Sequence to fold (178 residues):
Amino acid sequence: MVVLNPPAGEHLDVSLHDSKMNGHELNNHSVVTRLTCGTHTMVFAADVEQDGLSRMSRSTSQGSIEVLKVPHHGAVSSLNRDWLASVHPQYAVFSAGRHNPYKHPATVVLDAYVSEGSTLLRTDRDGGIWFTGGVADTSFHVHRARDLVWQPTSRASCLWACEQANWDRVARLWRDRY
Fold:
């Protein structure tokens, strides 16, 4: 695991309750880490915003990754297209509560990740998200809590297809457990 932000040697010499420090400055000092495990690489971007992302995009430690925990819940203040292109995530995980008052993730941010070719995963829609894979193995699996829960069906829109999907979930759970 490597710390990408804040930069090495940079010292934040204020109290978290210091009125001179605004939220953007604090967010740009968020601890951003890059985890490499075998052939798999993930970046956990905390709440870092555009200034911090811009600084990191100039770093030599960037490169394509498998998983990105998207910065700041998908807020517009944390969208930096140059940095996004430099990490080019296969999976973009948005951690946001359903019906949150900030309306995160922002549509423009979602569109940017789709344009980058990332598969979007969202805790507000998918529930918990986790990944499994082996250190000496190239296999990598995405898991969503939503896939483990029986989904409601509707006669009008999706009765048979949705019921089939529910039974597929049961079969997958059974197969994985026994």
Notes: Residues 90 and 105 are 18 Å apart (CA to CA). Helices lie at 23-27, 50-57, 81-87, 107-115, 123-126, 159-177. The chain has six helices and eight strands. The first strand starts at residue 2 and ends at 5.
